[in-house]
Specification:
The complex is a heterodimer of chains A (about 110) and B (about 110). Chain A is mostly beta strands. Chain A has no helices and twelve strands. In chain A, a hairpin with a 7-residue loop joins β10 and β11. The radius of gyration of chain A is 13 Å and the shape is globular. Chain B is built from no helices and eleven strands. In chain B, the strands form two sheets. In chain B, strands 2, 4, 5, 6, 9, 10 and 11 form a seven-stranded mixed sheet that branches. Chain B has a four-stranded antiparallel sheet with strand order 1-3-8-7, with no helix packed on it. Chain B is globular, with a radius of gyration of 13 Å. Classes of the chains: A mainly beta (about 110), B mainly beta (about 110). Chains A and B meet through β6 of A and β5, β9 and β10 of B.
Chain lengths: ~110, ~110
């Protein structure tokens, strides 16, 4: 079945550091890929997405590129802020136009001043 | 526009007691999802509704869990009786249709003692 593997957390970075959170997937067909963010006490929010190979999703300074050859969708940000502290979930969906989501376990990011 | 509303936000019960969670989706959203999120894990789908019809309940433990979405708007998820292993966060999400982005509520954190 479909699955998503994320790097283990927690990740602690100083403000303005570079962020990478690794995500790889296993899926049949051609999945769409997503990154969700969950701030403390809030629901999950869609951060960015990519629907086909080589697509780059971006939002709020975060980027991720859909690499079909390596089945990866790593999240990056050039300079993190304290307000980026949250749990980040990589997810995929399969089936044309489907939003039936399979999530990774999440990676907790803490950014310290 | 109001987001997905869930209540209660927190619930503590003794094992073998019943418990119910309520979800009010975003107005006009036809698709409603209930997810289970165990500590340190990503959300896992329990059930999906299209209007008032449960179209995917394959992951719902039907011996103790039940759900309903009367009139295709609000939804209730019930557990009877609760077990220690049910301690988790129960998330509700909604989308305009199955082919659109899901919006998540803040969740209900259940603790079974």
């Amino acid at each position: 079945g479909d699955s998503v593997t994320q790097m283990e957390g927690p990740v602690t970075l100083s403000e303005e550091a570079f962020l990478t959170i690794n995500c790889t997937y296993t899926a049949t067909g051609y999945p769409s890929l997503f990154w969700y963010v969950q701030y403390p006490g809030e629901g999950l929010q869609l951060l960015l997405k990519a629907t086909k190979a080589d697509d780059k999703g971006s939002n709020k300074g975060f980027e991720a590129t859909y690499h079909k050859e390596t089945t990866s969708f790593h999240l990056e940000k050039g300079s993190v802020q304290v307000s980026d502290s949250a749990v980040y979930f990589c997810a995929l969906s399969t089936g044309a136009g489907s939003y039936q989501l399979t999530f990774g376990k999440g990676t907790k990011l803490s950014v310290i001043p | 526009e109001a987001g997905v509303v869930q209540s209660p936000r927190y619930k503590i019960i003794e094992k073998k007691q019943p418990v119910a969670f309520w979800c009010n989706p975003i107005s006009g959203h036809n698709t409603l999802y209930w997810y289970l999120q165990n500590l340190g894990q990503g959300p896992e789908l329990l059930i999906r509704y299209e209007n008032e019809e449960a179209v995917d309940d394959s992951q719902l433990p039907k011996d103790r869990f039940s759900a309903e979405r009367l009139k295709g708007v609000d939804s209730t998820l019930k557990i009877q009786p609760a077990e220690l292993g049910d301690s988790a966060v129960y998330l509700c999400a909604s989308s305009h249709t199955f082919h659109n982005e899901q919006f998540f509520g803040p969740g209900t954190r259940l603790t079974v003692l």
